[in-house]
Amino acid sequence: MGSSAPQDLAEVYRATYRALVRFLYRKVWDAERAEDLAQEAFARALVHKPENARGWLFIVAANMARDDARRAARERRHLTLLTAEPQESTLASDEAIEVESDRARVRAALDELSPRDREVLLLWDSGLSYEEIAAQTGLARGAIGTTLSRARRRLVQAYEAGKAGEHVARG
Amino acid sequence: MSHVDDGTLHAYLDGELSPAEVQGVDAHLAQCPACRGRLDEERALITRAGELLAVAAPPDRELPPFRAGDVKPLTRLWWKARLPLAWAATVVVALGIGTYLGKGVERVPQAPTASDTQPVKLKALQAPISSDTVQRESRAERRGAARTPPAAPAAPGPAARRATEMAAIPRDTALRAATPAPAPAPQPAFVMVDGALVEKASPISLDSARRLLGADPLAVPGAPIRTMYRAREIGYSAVVIVEQALDSSTVIEVVNGRRSPLGLDAVAVTGAAAPGERADSVSVAERAPLSRARIADSLAAAPGAKAAARALRRFDNLEIRISGPLPSDSLGKLLQLVGPVKP
Asked: How far apart are CA B34 and CA A24, in angstroms?
């Protein structure tokens, strides 16, 4: 494989941008931030011209998301002090609220996976092949199927458990 | 043959087994009802997990178009602009801080000297000089950059080459004759505009500026134009900076950016902002009524960068910003005054 010419990268961009944003979103949980990071990753790819641009992008994105999460955690500690006043509730339809809380449930369920399981699941969902996921995570290719089956099962179980828990809590 | 394990079933359903492996699984499934049942369960599980992940997807925004033709702007704008600038900025900032610390003190308390050439309107604007760190810094950096010797590392390959190319362009002598201050030597430099680093290439003539922008460049009327620079900035197909002297100690920069439909909407994507958001932004004040939650969000997500709202004015394809050592409300007023520079 030669190094990626801009044309190749354009191709990768088209095929991967959304997936990369989705991948990042599930790490930073902020759509705008996810887009920022995805663009930053592409900008870096233009400079580094990695051989396997797609895999490279996901590695860089994962690293950026991790750094971002650390920083966000630091800042949130300050922010909780600043935003102690009750926030004005934004007007939202019931439907929007339902979508939002469902998203939160999935997020919580994802949080219950082990980091490795979660990573493999998110990479798969972003369109990476077993081969690519293996290269990315250092797992053996033969272990990806097993990891994915476990991750999927836990995700669904954790989600259902969370939902059931809510109903119990509401009475 | 022993039963098929979960991992293999998932790989099978994911289409990630080799043809030989697929054959093996098929052969076993044909004779094992239990595994066929599990296959259906696992398929349902995969579907369900996929649905849940789809719930946790970001709001579906337009994919910034990136057709074959968009490749070049992307390359030019990002790759050439970003990295060389990034580390050159470090040098510039370091130099700039030094210069600023040295010069800042004597510069600040200067009472506006009654210079006859200075328009009254502009003098009034300067009155409430409070500290405006961002703008001052930008000024300081530019100064620092101007001191960088031509061969210094602040001018890496592409920039240096561009500078020599640009130097070959004949300058408009008429324009220069009308300017009180001598134009600095054509050196590449960097200007901080709204937190974004812009490379100043070299002075250009009014004609060149007009060609670049596809329109008359805009400037604050009445203030003498010292120089015009060509600059490059992500998201714009052309940027011309008009440097104007308000008085002997105050120089502002009117940044004329010609929006690049490819650059901004397609590639530089403004990332955070929804595509339309930038277009209608005029002033900080008009953006103010954001909900508190929203602000908290954006602070948590992107410290600094997004908190600094920018004032810009749009004229057709041009976006105009002003930077200079003045309070931001004064810069905002100046922004309302700008008009086209006529020959």
From this structure: 39
The range of the structural domain enclosing residue A40 comes to 1-83
Residue B157 lies in a domain: yes
**Which tens digit of pLDDT belongs to each residue from A34-80?**
988 998 888 888 888 888 888 899 999 999 998 887 887 777 666 65
Q: Is A120 on the interface with B (CB under 8 A)?
A: no
B49:A34 CB<8 A: no
**Domain end marker among B55, B80, B95:** B55
Substitution target in A21, A36, A77, A157 with the highest count of B β-carbons within 10 Å is A36
What is the per-residue pLDDT for B136? 41
Query: What residue type is B55 in one-letter code?
Result: V
Q: Do the domain assignments include residue B60?
A: no
Does pLDDT of A22 surpass 50? yes
Q: What dihedral do alpha carbons A141, A49, A8, A125 form, nearest 10°?
A: 40
- Cβ–Cβ below 8 Å for A148 and B14: yes
pLDDT tens digits for range A85-128: 444 445 567 777 888 888 899 999 999 999 999 999 999 998 88
For residue A17, the chain B residues in CB contact (below 8 A) are 63-64, 66
Q: What is the domain extent for residue B47? A: 6-55
The residue of chain A with its CA nearest to that of B82 is: A43
Whether ipTM tops 0.90, in short, is no
Token representation of residue A19: 């997936």
Q: What is the pLDDT of residue B223?
A: 86
Q: Identify whether B64 is part of a domain.
A: no
- On the question of pLDDT at B312 being above 90, the answer is no
Instruction: Say if CB B244 and CB B228 are below 8 A apart.
Output: no
Residue B42 and residue B133 in one domain? no
Query: Which candidate in B42, B71, B234, B295 is best for mutational testing of the A interface (most A CBs within 10 A)?
Result: B71
Shared domain for A78 and A97, answered yes or no, is no
Q: Which of A51, A83, A115 finishes a domain?
A: A83
Check B56 against A26: CB less than 8 A apart.
yes
- A97 and A79: one domain? no
pLDDT(B123) > 70: no
How many domains, chain A? Answer: 2
Residue type, A18: R
Q: Is B22 found in the same domain as B148?
A: no
